[in-house]
Every structure is written in C-alpha cells, then in structure tokens.
Amino acid sequence: MSRFLQAVLALVMVLALTARAGEVVVGTNAEFMPFEFTDDDNNIIGYDIDVVHAVARAGGFEVRLHNQSFDTLIEGLESGKLDAVISGMTITEARKEKVDFSEPYYNAAQVIVVQEKTPGFEKIGDVKGKLVGVQLGTTGAGMAEEVMGENNPDLKQFRKYNEVFSELRIGRIDAVVVDLPVARAYVEKIPGIRISSPPMSVEEYGMAVKKGNSELLNKINAGLKAIRESGEYKEITNKWFQN
Ligand code: GLN
After folding, report:
1. Is 27 in the pocket of ligand 1 (CB under 6 A)?
2. How far, in Å, is the centroid of ligand 1 from the Cα of 90?
3. b/e string for 156-195 if b means 16 or more Cβ within 10 A?
4. Which terminus of the chain, N or C, has fewer Cβ atoms within 10 Å?
5. Which domains does the chain have, with CATH numbers?
C-alpha cells in the first residue's frame, strides 16, 4: 500500500472515531418513559428527544445521542465525554454545584406507586420501614433516603426503572418513588399498580452542560426560547402529554 493510501486510511479512521465538528454529544438514559425510552427497533424516542432535536435545529447545532445510566450522566459532563445532558433531569442545588442548567423546560413531581391492593402510601413518611425501589442517583432516591436513612438495605436502588417496576409487580418491594409522568406511563403499561400519593415535590427539568460552557448553554437557551415562540414546543408537549 502506498504511503498516500495509508495516510488516507488513517485519516478516515480518525474521522470515523471522532464526533463531527459542530456535533454535540448529548447524554441520556433511555429508561424514562415517556421522556426517553427505546422503541421496538431500539431507536431512542420520547419527549426529551423531540425537545433536544428541536432546540438543536433552532439553536444551530447537531445532536449525537449517547445512552448511558442516569447516575453517570453528570460525571460524563465533568469528564468532557458528554457535551450536554437531557434526561428528565431535575434542576437541584446540589447538581448546580457540578454542572450548569438551561432554563427549565418541564415541571414534574415525585409520587409513590404501589400495587393496587396495597392501602396507604399517601405521603413520603409512609415509606419508613417498608421495602422501597428507586432509580440510582435520582431525586426520588434522595426523597426516600431522607426518610429511610442513607444505606438503608430496605431501599433498593436500581439502574433501570424497568427493573424497579418488575420488582413492584411481583411484590418484592412495597413501593416506588418516581416522577409523576413516568409513574403514569408505567401504571398504563403494567396491570395491578396505582399511584398512591399526590405530587410530593415541585421539580423542574433542565438540560445540563459542563460547568462554564456558556457557549453551548446560550445556544440551548436560545433554541428553547425560539421553539417556545414558534409553537413547536407546545406541539411536542401535546404530542406526548394529552393532559
Ligand atoms: N427527575 C429525576 C431526577 O432528576 C429522575 C430522572 C431520571 O430518572 N431520568 O433525579
């Protein structure tokens, strides 16, 4: 092989391995229906996915999605492996110390889900002394921890909500603490479970970027503003949420 061909081959390989210029690597955890989940063909779809693509079109950047567990998203931003995150992530003071958040794009709350036949569980205090399932690293996990104490073996922390809800279905745990829209989606999907509490928190979702990446944050906020004004944001919301 000629030197020239070798050089061309090497270049092609480098290009294949690196993100295209202008491409923003967006981390998500596609385990959070209806915000991000996979369809039968393993495509990542959902409300957040539509939002981030619309924001990118309006803000002038391209998106490459990266699916990974929720508890590794923030460190992905910190290490520079990810440029941005959209993952139903609640804007919290603790997270704000590590990453920068966009303007909020969705309001949510934590609720409790139990088997239909289970009485009670109307407030977070009711999970005390019970077997509770949550997703690792979430605000729901934090709420349960506040009542149950850190490292309580009765608080089962999973990487996937699918696992959390199958444990609830077979009765290996008594209750799940999870975001309301996700609770609704699972109640629709799995027979025999119900939402037992009113909304127990006020939470806003934001997209996150590495601390100090104001260039990307400005594009995201400009994109969000533009899709709110154009009506596209409303269309996406109506598509995924009937109520
Ligand atoms: N909104 C919750 C949080 O930010 C849960 C997010 C998720 O599990 N994807 O912790």
Report:
1. no
2. 6
3. bbbbbbeebbebbeeeebbbbbbbbbbbbbbbeeeeebeb
4. C
5. 3-107+205-240 (3.40.190.10), 110-195 (3.40.190.10)
